[in-house]
Structures are given as structure tokens and as C-alpha cells.
Amino acid sequence: MTRITAPELSPSPPDSPPPARRSPAPATPPSRRRRPSPSPSLALTPSSASTSTTSSRPRPRPSPKRTYSPAQWVPVSSHPAFALRGALGGGGAAWDAAGSRLYVWDPSARGAHRVSVRIRDAEAERDGEEVAVEAAVPSEMLMPETDLGYEVTHISLNTDGSSLLLAGSHNINVLYVHERVSEDGDTIICRTAPVASQILPTNNNGIKVLQTSWHPFSSSHFGVLTSDAVFRLFDLSFDLEQPEQEFYLQPILPGRCQNASSICPVAFSYGSDHLWDRFSVFILFSDGSIFVLCPVVPFGCDYSKKHIEEIYEDVNTFGLKSSNPNVVTNSHLAIAWLEATFPELLRQSADSSTLMSRARAYAPVDDSLTLQGPLCRVCEENNELEGKSSSCEGKAVGFVYSSVGKDSVLVTAWGSGQLQIDALADEIQPQWSIGVPTRLNVDSHGRIKSVAMICDSNPQDSSALRSHRSSSMGSNAKSNTEAVWMGHSPPLLRLSIVDLALPKTSNGSSLSLFLDPLVPERFYCAHGGGLDMVTLHFLPFSYPEMASTPPSVHPVLTTGNSDTSSPFLSGFVAIADAYGHVQLVGITYTGECFVVEMKGWKEPTPLQLDICSKDIKDVESSTTGMISKELLAGPDPPILPSSTSLRSLTPDSIEGKSTLHHYIKVFHEHYVEYGHKVRAIIMVFCAYPLST
């Protein structure tokens, strides 16, 4: 375990707000259907109403046609949506990559600004080496058709950009972006529907909404975690009042009372593209314990057929051939679930043109999912289970999952200002509680409409982990495989504890975590004192030959605020642009907008934000009038290890993806960054006549 402290910032500053660029949408998996991106000249043309997914939806009433004047482009920080906001507070922001649009909730107007954004390359116009994030004026205001009756604290857009979740502390609504009820100039009234109005109270005195999040593999499914320790999965295209899947969480903590009344759930995160991780939901509790539900699959969701076949082959190859009866039993359960959920596995179709497999509605009648965990942590240095001395202080307040090469990384934020970074030491596998029946709701044809189950954790899980600890860490391939399929939760390998050195408060600090869309080793932490960037330099399974190096912490923005118990950001989005860079767009609770450009692996110049005076300044000046010796010397050629096994790797395999990611990172770090610097210097010097 490594404990590091973020460096203190020196005050200062000449002014120079960060600039900006226009970003096309990143590549979209075939399972996610998106609408076409509008051109900048049509940025204000309203999208046509999307076709309804069910016949139960009312058809939107036609609105009179509107005429538009050409859009005027201004810096996004100067857009009227931010400059004219006077009320404090906020409800978040969301980014539509396909349409290049920014959604920002306005608490005073009780609606969402939809702002068309472009990222202009200023280098082509000899304005310097920076870029400009610009927004179209005027923008549109999307209003719910009825008064919500609550304060919106978070908004979230689905993958195809058609629906916007409006979440409050006790209520949720869905705003259908393309279903217009009426229009009045730039104000559009959109159809809005409540979510689980019979479950969530209207008097704000009952169940609390802890987190809402769209499922990464479906544009119509979203998950809701509530304070009654229930995780619910809703299907937008079927029923918003009743959840499609309900999981009642019953954790049992070893060494404590046999219930979880002393702790409560805090946050959840979906798994990503890594074997069974794509079917997993990771849930964080207030004491820092992490539990897993696997498998959880939205009904009717599309998955890569190749990935499903890879998992199916893995179970048949390793699980069924074991001499351990427990391993064989668990493998049979996993195979039965795969064959029932993805029937194409049994048909063995010779048609190779089918790239996706659709998940069929299925759940075992006599068995329920096991709440795997709590996941025990082991130290990387000595492979021992951690004690209390190495745990963080306070309560867990934030959580995020990231898939980096072969590693599954879990980051937990604590109210004490610490970040706990762990990696899964083994693969996640499905687990069921035998003999605990599932409640099924079926239609007249016997098709499953919804499921509900009680998910108990295994009290023997942690003690069993101790006896299998050595095999779980990979010392023997055969024993390691059997340990995975024994039905025990995988341990967490402690990578580091990062101390952000925040001022101590009685209620603890409020921290939020955000992933970088281009660099998976990088994430951001927002708190009352500002915004920090954390970069991982050690990944135990992706780069085992590398030395254990602690993460680096770099301040992106500081507020100078000593009260870190409340966040200063009301909205934050990370935009991947066309130049391989990331634009960080943040909206403060005072309605101010700022933009920071992240250029590859280069650390940005920290910004200082004075909340009282609404002024953003550079912490240090980076202007220079000479070509540096480093630039004249050229890029340092990377030292690549010789390898004769690269030709045997396929780009779709885990090893192939990890290797490809590594070499792309090396190429970008050594050559792309150098090319950008050279071009910027040439454009600057070309702006001046040569002296004779």
C-alpha cells in the first residue's frame, strides 16, 4: 500500500482563461443506435420526433414550423445560459456526443438548456496553440410539460440522446427530448413521465434516491439505488411504474451483527467490457464495503456475440473439467443461465454475419442471485489481508469502476478526503443462492415481464477467501481457476491510498468521481476545494513487469475554499474531441462555466477560481518567445521490448487489446504530443515577417 499526499498549490496569477475545440462523436458500438449528428449550420434545427418504442405512448401533438436565423458562435463560458443565471444551485449537466450538444439544468427556469457545441481549431487561424470550445446562440430551453414539484439534483442522458433523466432527492422523471407537446420560440415543452411514483413518495419523507444511471449496454434501461437497500432496473420502453428487475440487498458483514442495519448503500457502478464484468453491478456501502451482483442483464439488450461465445467457452473448458464438485456445480449453473439467456449458443448457427446476441428475459425459478462480498482487500506487497490500520477514515461517499486493459479498477472516495484505489485480483463469476426462490411476473403466454429477488451475502465467503488466498493470487494456474469457480468472491488488490489533503470538517467532505473518456488510467475528483486529476502508473495485470509506482495527483482547478463539506460543481462533463484531447466543462453552483483542455498525458496549468468574484485565472504563466532545446532535439524514441509473440495475438482478445492500448499510449506520448508542439510553434513564427 502506498499513501501519497497531493502537493500544495502556490497562489497567484495572471489571467488567461482556458480555450477550446469542436468534437465529433466517438465511435459507437453496433448495439447502440444513435441519431445522425446535425451539421453546425443546422445546429438550431429541431430534431424530428423519434418513433415511439411502444404503442402505449401518446403521439406528440404537431407544432407549428419555426424559422431560424443563422447561429452565432460564442465561447461556451460566455453563453447566455450561464451568464444570465442568477440563482444559486444546479441540477447537473449531460453531454450528447452524437449531436454535439450540452444539456444544462437551470434551477431558476426549471428547465434544461440544450446548447449546440463545436470545438474550433484555432491553430488553423494562427491564433496560437490553443483551441476554442464554442456554443451556438440562441439555444433551446426544454421544459417539462408539468411542474415536477421537486428540486432536480442530477440529470443524465441515455446513449442515443432521446431521453433525459431528471432525478431529485426523492423523485425521478423522464423527459422525452424528441416528443414535443408545444413550442414557443426557443422554448420547447416536452413530454415528461414520472418513474416509480407508487414506490417513491411525493412528500419527501420516505425512500431516498441515492443514484440513478443509464445502463451502458442499453438506451432504454436505467438503474436506481434507493435508501431502502434495493437496486431496481427500469425499462423505458415497457413500464416506468414497475421495475423490470428488483434486487433486495441483504449484506452480512463478518464479525458484526448479522444484518446491515448499521450501514447503508451509497452508490453503484456497472461493470465494463471484461468477461463477466459486463454482467455485474458493483455496490458501495457507507463503511466502504463493496458487494457485487452477477449476472444482471437488461431484458432485450444486445451484447457482442463474440464476447458471449468467449465466456461460454471459458466455462466449458475450465469449469466442467474440474475434479472439485463445487466447481462443477457452479459451472453448470453458469452454463444453464448463458444458454437460457442467449439461446443462439445452442443453435451453433453457421451465419457469421450476426455480430450481436439479444438477451432473453430469464431468471431461475428456484434460485436467486447471491450478493457477493464484502470483497476483502489484500496488500500488494505481502499478499496479506488488510487490517484496520490501513483503512480510510470517515464514511464512503463516492464510487467508480474502470476497466483498464486486463485490470478492473475500483476507486472509493471517502469523506476524509482520501481515495482508495483497488483492483480485482480474480475474475468476477456468477453466483446463486440455491433454494432461494425468485418472484416472477409472467404474461398470459408465459413470458417473463419482471423479476424480484432477495439477495443474501454468503457468511462463509470471507473465511473461505483466507484459505484460498494463495491460489487466488495466481501462483498456480490450475488452483487459481478452481478457486475462481468455487463460488467465492474475488479479493481486491490494494493499489494505493491517495490523500488529497483537504481541510477537516465535522460532516466530512463531499467528493465526486469522473472517468476520463480517452485515458482509462486517469480519473477526476471534484470537491469543495477544486478539481484534481489522478493518473495510475501501476496496473498489476496489464503491466506486471512494471515497478509499483504510486499514482500522481495534479490539481486542475482550485477554489481556495476552506469549506469542503459542500461541492462547488453543479455539473461536469468530459468531452473527447477530434484531436485526441479531452475538454473538461464544468458548471459551478453560482452558474459560472469553465473549460480546461487536457492534452494527452500532459499535465494542464492549474486554474484558480475565485467563487466570490467569479474570476478564473492561470496559476502560472507559460508564455515563451523562443523555441526550446527540447523541441529542436526531436522526440525521444521509446524503448520497446522485443517480442516474438505479437503475431499470435488477435485484436479482439484481452491480451491483444491490452497490448494495442499500451503501444497507442507510447505512440501518443512520444510522437503525437511532439507533433502538436512543433505545429503550434511553426504557426506562431509564421505570423511574423522574417528580419533581414
UniProtKB/TrEMBL annotation:
Gene Ontology BP term (one): mRNA export from nucleus
Iron-sulfur listed as a keyword: no
Regions of compositional bias (Pro residues) in chain numbering: 10-29
Segments of skewed composition (Low complexity): 40-57, 462-475
Major site of localization recorded for this protein: nucleus
Compartments, as annotated in UniProt: Nucleus, Nuclear pore complex
Region of interest (Disordered), residue spans: 1-72, 459-479
InterPro entries registered for this protein in UniProt: Nucleoporin_Nup88, NUP88/NUP82
GO CC annotation, single: nuclear pore
MF terms (GO), sorted A to Z: structural constituent of nuclear pore
Top-rank taxon, per record: Eukaryota
The keyword Transport appears for this protein: yes
Keywords assigned: mRNA transport, Nuclear pore complex, Nucleus, Protein transport, Translocation, Transport
Alphabetical list of PANTHER family matching this protein: NUCLEAR PORE COMPLEX PROTEIN NUP88, NUCLEOPORIN NUP84-RELATED
Name by which UniProt lists this protein: Nuclear pore complex protein Nup88
Source organism per UniProt: Triticum urartu (Red wild einkorn)
Lineage of the species this protein comes from: Eukaryota, Viridiplantae, Streptophyta, Embryophyta, Tracheophyta
